[in-house]
Amino acid sequence: MLFLNKKIAIVGGGPGGLTLARLLQLQGADVQVFERDVNEAVRAQGATLDLHEESGLEALRRAGLIEAFYAHYRPDAGKVRILDEQAEIYSDDHATGTGYTDSRPEIDRAPLRNLLLQALQPGTVVWDRHFVSMEDEKDGWRLHFKNGTTVYADLVIGADGAHSKIRSYITGIAPIYSGVTIVEGQVYHAAQHAPNLWALVRGGKIFAFGNEQSLILSAKGEGSLSFYTGCKVPETWVQECGVDFSDHTQVFSWFKTAYGSWNKVWLELFTNGDAGFIPRPQYHFPLDQHWNARPNLTMLGDAAHRMPPYAGEGVNMAMQDAFELSGCITGSNFVSLQEAIAHYENGMLKRASEVTRFTLANTEMLHAKDALEQMVAMMSGQ
């Protein structure tokens, strides 16, 4: 077997990296995950995730975790309401009892991460390992971390997200700005701090559109409300807008101006001063990106194919990458790791190109003048 007597290092402990670690361990591989978080409780988790049949759910089946998933998923989290900027409802899954997303069950990020962590052998995830650099050593790599520690690995897999440092060791292909920038925020104890919006979201999601802008809200099981604004602005907007996104008052002032024609109910998103905000310019990689496979290095998820979130494909793509890569590494169809990695990467890049094309079309649609009409038509199956 290609992985026998080889130490495998996965850099990044998100769903893609953890899924890969689980699948590799089921085949007897020697694998560790190096995660920059100090421990598993440090990072605030984002919005809910909808898992797709052929990708995210399939990965969990192969990992033997599908029952654990259904023990923690949220049946109503995928129910969507489509609103205009005045908070008038145009489409409502709660009213019909069924929804466009019924075949895509939702789970909060924290429970998904926890069930993946609990499925791994003790000590698999090494915390407080913020990757800094690596260099060739023997037939593998010597990895260096911010806390001064190092480790050797025969095979390194980058699962370190959209701002991957591993990617630069594989390719210099740069991302392309999509034309849309998101501001991400969170309302804790939303029933108290945003009671009208909490009632409006009804434990599911809200997609609101107006003036070529979007606003997406997701309720989480622990009572918080995550949200994402979406605006068509220049690539340099974050640096040039003059907003200090660590200053709640400045962000609130920006929102009241940028979304000035929207109903005042949306201002509830900013009534809780405890939450922070993160501006996220949305990028994607070229549809035709390609590189030559290496014998001891590859990547998955956003590191390989970052894209905007407007098709719900990010986590699903990463988890599909995980089971396809695991199958190549642990299977018997290839004579070398380089051949196995090349087969995985060729398939992954072809799939990513198709999904990126679809995602970019969605990104444009959701920020068009007739976004509301198009979204209502899509949700009704037209």
UniProtKB/TrEMBL annotation:
Task: Kindly state which reaction or reactions the protein catalyses.
Answer: a tetracycline + NADPH + O2 + H(+) = an 11a-hydroxytetracycline + NADP(+) + H2O
Its EC number is 1.14.13.-
Which key words are in the record?
Answer: Cytoplasm, FAD, Flavoprotein, Monooxygenase, NADP, Nucleotide-binding, Oxidoreductase
For the ligand (FAD), the binding residues are D50, R109, D302
User: Any keyword Plastid?
Assistant: no
Cofactor(s) needed for function: FAD
Pfam families attached here?
A: FAD_binding_3
Which terms does the record give in the GO molecular function aspect?
monooxygenase activity
Q: Where is the FAD-binding domain?
A: 7-170, 297-326
Gene3D superfamilies named among the record's database cross-references? FAD/NAD(P)-binding domain
The top EC class is: oxidoreductase
Q: What is its main location?
A: cytoplasm
The answer to whether keyword Flavoprotein applies is yes
The domain of life for this entry's organism is Bacteria
Query: Which family is this sequence assigned to?
Result: Belongs to the aromatic-ring hydroxylase family. TetX subfamily.
What this chain does, per the entry, is described as: An FAD-requiring monooxygenase active on some tetracycline antibiotic derivatives, which leads to their inactivation. Hydroxylates carbon 11a of tetracycline and some analogs.
Q: Give the domain section of the comments.
A: Consists of an N-terminal FAD-binding domain with a Rossman fold and a C-terminal substrate-binding domain.
Subunit-level organization: Monomer.
This chain belongs to the protein called: Flavin-dependent monooxygenase
